[in-house]
UniProtKB/TrEMBL annotation, chain A:
Keywords: Cell membrane, Membrane, Transmembrane, Transmembrane helix. The chain crosses the membrane at residues 12-35, 42-64, 70-92, 104-125, 149-174, 202-221, 241-265, 342-362, 369-392, 398-416, 428-448, 460-480, 509-527, 557-576, 588-619, 631-650. PANTHER family: HIGH-AFFINITY BRANCHED-CHAIN AMINO ACID TRANSPORT PROTEIN BRAE, HIGH-AFFINITY BRANCHED-CHAIN AMINO ACID TRANSPORT SYSTEM PERMEASE. This is Branched-chain amino acid transport system permease protein. Its main location: membrane. It is found in: Cell membrane.
From TrEMBL, chain B:
One of its GO terms (molecular function) is ATP binding. CDD domains: ABC_Mj1267_LivG_branched. It comes from the Bacteria. It comes from Ancylobacter polymorphus. This is Branched-chain amino acid transport system ATP-binding protein. Keywords: ATP-binding, Nucleotide-binding, Transport. Gene3D superfamilies: P-loop containing nucleotide triphosphate hydrolases. Residues 14-262 form the ABC transporter domain. Signal peptide: none annotated.
Length: 677, 264
């Protein structure tokens, strides 16, 4: 009972924090239908700003800067105000131009804003934790309830603050005209515009309040755990989103309820499940996935939020940018479109070019980088099947990649070498067996994960797949016996063919190229058939596709399977070239990166993923020559984020908007047959 | 074709029995009985908002009726998913054209032939001859159908949504026909067309029927309906107002009141 009481108390503290951050997600989603992933980072900034304002001095960009040394309440108020202003600014710059753009553009922008904010925070405050200064109330002795439950004074302060903030917000929404306008927009944005509610002001208010709540949650979190760190917002951000979805995104009481439930479930789970502390992150995501499966609209939400527009994930033209900019984008688009539709001769030409470069390039360093380009290109191609062709936004793709990488690593290292003492070189052929085996395993896995998502669309689909990806990562970290946990698996042998080690960068590049040929060829053959036509039809208009006799559920699963197969297949090779894997290799960030590569190079094309990978990875290396980037390597990610934001604002339809591939089998057309004869 | 074994009227192709559709509080279709004969051109008419599209949605599985049952070609089909309706031989077009964006005309039409393909993933990847032959056969069929609906082969490679409105309608009809349906359901295919185009499409409908495919046609133009249809069902406020041969139905005072009393 004492133990339970203590867990409940801890759960309430955590739940209060989640609830505050969940309000941020829910408020903004209610008004603009945007899942603003950047709230996790605003949460983190709230913590950093508060800590900085409380300290006498902090190290910023490596220099010691004197600080006012306020007490916690004053510092918190300052941090909240600053973060709220930042939230409004972000909306103004990155989201407002995209109000009418289709689903993927604002989602990408919000992810990009996250990346920018996190990289900047790391640049400014450094990669180490910043200790959160102790507030004088925290030195008071804890309150003891029922002789056994210990609550620090600060825990009580956290709960009281959260309660006060929630009540304040409720009163604001019920009483003030701005609050009422906010609620009206949440109910029906169209009607709100019609009755003359100034939507932009309402949205700005929602962002200000939401960002303020995120900052408050972040500083309370940092206060409770005693530190601030640039990546601290990531998991709590996802959990707050989970809480918001749990309660029914768009509903403020729902967010409070979802936050409390999540906090309590997490506290109880980590207290009672075997090895529960390690698994507590998985608990939240299992809850999320289960709820979305059973009741997609959340506990208190509305079902119509689980819907999505038709057509490609990107689209619509920007109203911004000068004529020359549009013309330039148009030219680039035309070029990419021509490249995408050039077909087999162009593909063979590119392959020949790659072979020549691979044979002549003197630098091992650049060969390694090009190998990485090919690997990422292949992975992005796999993701492209589901996102680009079938139009399903999948944020859990890395899981399939992880399945392949772990399968081969576990077999080679943990089982054969460690258990049976088999030298990898003697069983070199196993790699070639593992490639299709891992592909099939990952495909099966993809179908398993895909099945419960079939009813979901748009943002909910993205959130659910994201939940799956996180579950797989947490499992990889914690299932020590199977995966070696966070230590990862070392000593994975380099590829080998008939006893000839293919360890040299040049050999590996050619190996990668050979796999890429297989991957692109197989994908192209599937896409250029009735299967690909069914996928694109589903992407463009799911109902009409059904009416044409396409069993859409089955074809979505095929898309998951094909995408999973590629992930698993490439994962095997990835493990053997890296020779070391750990759960860190398969983070959500990697998935986002792959998505960005596809968007950069062209959704729904064959060469797009490789173009995107080439641009990004080569940029990553070249940027290292800049002195500033050398000092702060993480600014490269900020730059990627900025590039993406600019791209989405000025060109929400993506660089290769008009690129499309033919969806009929080459050589099956009567005209072609005549030519050949 | 089944031989007529003395029965005066063979079983209808599609029978809808006591169909009721409610959207929340609104009853869009009430207790509707309707039978579409084999090889008929069956007109479904009624003022705007009468529930015609809803009936067509029920007959193609888009809307599950609140009550009632559907028998198609002798089998109960009410429980099927939308693609099941299509697979049984019910093909449709949409009142607001719904072609697939980013697809060429040829590709769009081929989507309609989806159920005719059966190659598995491996034979697709390895380009087996049977898979190629099936594709080539369907492409040839698609070209035939494009010609049949009055489109030249030169539009085949244009993105379908960039065509003119009238041409898009024809693509939609070709996309529905390529599945070799038993019943083609057209939701206001003549809307927004000039007299020449209307005559062409009406002619097309007759040719479809000549191939042994029954047609359900929603249409407002009474001249066309009178000349084209063998049988009419009139809806008003979701209920059946009249049902029978065109001459008889259009002479019915209740139908005239429903039509003449309004704008149309
Ligand atoms: N999905 C729907 N949800 C709610 N009401 C609908 C829906 N579809 C149609 N209705 C309503 O049903 C009635 C009949 O519509 P419809 O079948 O489109 O008529 P018609 O095609 O004869 O013009 C209309 O009042 C319409 O608003
Ligand atoms: Mg209608």
């Amino acid at each position: 009972m004492d133990y339970l009481g203590q867990l409940l108390a801890n759960g309430l503290v955590l739940g209060a924090i989640y609830a505050l951050a969940a309000v941020a997600f829910t408020l903004v989603y209610g008004v603009v239908r945007l899942v603003n992933f950047a709230f996790g980072e605003l949460f983190m900034l709230g913590a950093f700003l508060t800590a900085s304002l409380m300290l006498p001095e902090v190290r910023l960009l490596g220099a010691i800067v004197p600080m006012p040394g306020f007490s916690l309440p004053v510092a918190a108020a300052g941090a909240i105000a600053l973060t709220a202003a930042l939230g409004v600014l972000v909306d103004r710059i990155a989201y407002r131009p995209l109000r009418n753009a289709p689903r993927l553009a604002p989602l990408i922008t919000s992810i990009a804003v996250s990346v920018v904010l996190q990289s900047l925070a790391q640049t400014v405050w450094g990669a180490e934790e910043l200790r959160f200064p102790e507030f004088h109330l925290a030195t008071l002795p804890p309150v003891v309830l029922f002789d056994s439950i210990y609550l620090s004074v600060m825990d009580l302060v956290v709960m009281a603050t959260a309660l006060a903030a929630m009540l304040g917000l409720s009163a604001f929404i019920a009483r003030s005209s701005l609050g009422r306008a906010m609620r009206a927009s949440a109910e029906d944005q169209m009607a709100a515009t019609l009755v003359g509610i100034p939507v932009n002001r309402v949205v700005a208010a929602a962002f200000a309040i939401g960002s303020g709540f995120a900052a408050l949650a972040g500083l309370l979190y940092a206060q409770t755990y005693g530190f601030a760190h640039s990546s601290m917002g990531f998991l709590p951000g996802l959990k707050a989103l989970t809480a918001a979805v749990l309660g029914g995104i768009g509903s403020i009481p729902g967010a409070a309820l979802g936050g409390l439930i999540l906090g309590l479930v997490e506290a109880l789970g980590s207290g009672y499940l075997p090895n529960g502390t390690a698994w507590k992150d998985a608990i939240s995501f299992v809850l999320l996935v289960g709820l979305l499966y059973l009741r997609p609209q959340g506990l208190l939400g509305k079902p119509e939020l689980n819907s999505a527009g038709r057509g490609s994930l990107l689209g619509g033209a920007s109203e911004f940018g000068a004529g020359w900019l549009r013309a330039a984008f148009g030219k680039l688009d035309g070029g990419l479109a021509r490249a995408a539709s050039a077909g087999t001769p162009a593909a063979l030409g590119l392959l020949a070019l790659a072979l020549v470069v691979g044979a002549l390039l003197p630098s091992d360093y650049w060969l390694r980088i090009l190998t990485l380009v090919v690997i990422y290109g292949m992975l992005a191609s796999g993701l492209n099947v589901i996102v680009g062709f079938a139009g399903l936004l999948d944020l859990g793709f890395v899981a399939f990649w992880a399945v392949g990488a772990y399968l081969t690593s576990i077999l080679f290292v943990l089982v054969l070498k460690d258990q049976f003492g088999v030298e990898p070189a003697t069983i070199w052929w196993l790699l070639y067996l593992n490639l299709p085996l891992a592909g099939l395993l990952a495909a099966g896995f993809a179908v398993m994960l895909g099945t419960p998502t079939l009813r979901l669309r748009g943002d909910y689909l993205a959130i659910m797949t994201l939940g799956f990806g996180e579950i797989v990562r947490v499992v990889a970290i914690n299932w020590m016996d199977l995966t070696n946990g966070p230590m990862g698996i070392r000593g994975i042998p380099a590829p080998n063919l008939f006893g000839i080690a293919l360890g040299s960068p040049r050999a590996q590049f050619f190996f990668a190229l050979a796999l890429a040929v297989v991957v692109v060829f197989a994908i192209a053959r599937l896409v250029r058939s009735y299967v690909g036509r069914a996928w694109v039809a589903i992407r463009e208009d799911e109902e009409a596709a059904e009416a044409m006799g396409v069993p859409t559920a089955r074809y979505k699963l095929y898309a998951y399977a094909a995408s999973g197969f590629v992930g698993g297949f490439v994962g095997v090779f990835y493990a053997h070239t890296q020779q070391y894997i750990s759960p860190l290799n398969f983070s959500l960030f990697e998935n986002i990166l792959l998505l960005m590569l596809v968007v950069l190079g062209g959704l729904g094309t064959f060469i797009g993923p490789f173009v995107g990978a080439l641009i990004w990875i080569v940029f990553l290396q070249l940027a290292l020559d800049l002195p500033f980037v050398q000092a702060y390597p993480e600014t490269r990610f900020a730059l990627l984020g900025i590039v993406l934001i600019v791209l989405m604002v000025f060109r929400p339809q993506g660089l290769a908007a008009s690129a499309r591939v033919a969806l009929t089998m080459p050589g099956a057309r009567p005209a072609n047959a005549k030519e050949a004869a | 074709m089944k031989p007529l074994t003395g029965a005066p009227s063979p079983a209808p192709l599609l029978e809808a029995r006591a169909i009721t559709v409610r959207f929340g509080g609104l009853q869009a279709v009430g207790d509707l009985d309707m039978a579409i004969g084999r090889n008929a051109i069956h007109g479904l008419i009624g003022p705007n908002g009468a529930g015609k599209t809803t009936v067509l949605n029920v007959l193609t599985g888009f809307v599950r009726p609140t009550e009632g049952e559907l028998v198609f070609d002798g089998a109960e089909i009410g429980g099927l998913g939308v693609n099941g309706f299509a697979r049984r031989g019910l093909a449709r077009t949409f009142q607001n054209i719904r072609l697939f964006g980013a697809m060429t005309v040829l590709e769009s039409v081929l989507v309609g032939a989806h159920q005719r393909f059966s190659a598995n993933a491996l034979s697709l990847v390895f380009g087996r001859r049977a898979a190629r032959a099936a594709e080539a056969a369907m492409i040839a069929r698609a070209y035939e159908l494009l010609a049949f609906v009055g489109l030249g082969a030169e539009v085949a490679d244009r993105v379908a949504t960039t065509l003119s409105y009238g041409h898009q309608r024809r693509v939609e009809i070709a996309r529905a026909l390529i599945s070799s349906p038993k019943l083609l359901l057209l939701d206001e295919p003549l809307a927004g067309m000039n007299a020449v185009e209307k005559a062409e499409i009406a002619d097309l409908v007759r040719q479809v029927r000549a191939q042994g495919i029954a047609v359900l046609l929603i249409e407002h133009d009474m001249q066309v309906v009178r000349r084209l249809c063998d049988h009419l069902t009139v809806l008003e406020y979701g209920r059946k107002l009249a049902d029978g041969p065109p001459e008889q139905v259009l002479a019915d005072p209740a139908v005239q009141a429903a039509y003449l009393g309004r704008a149309r």
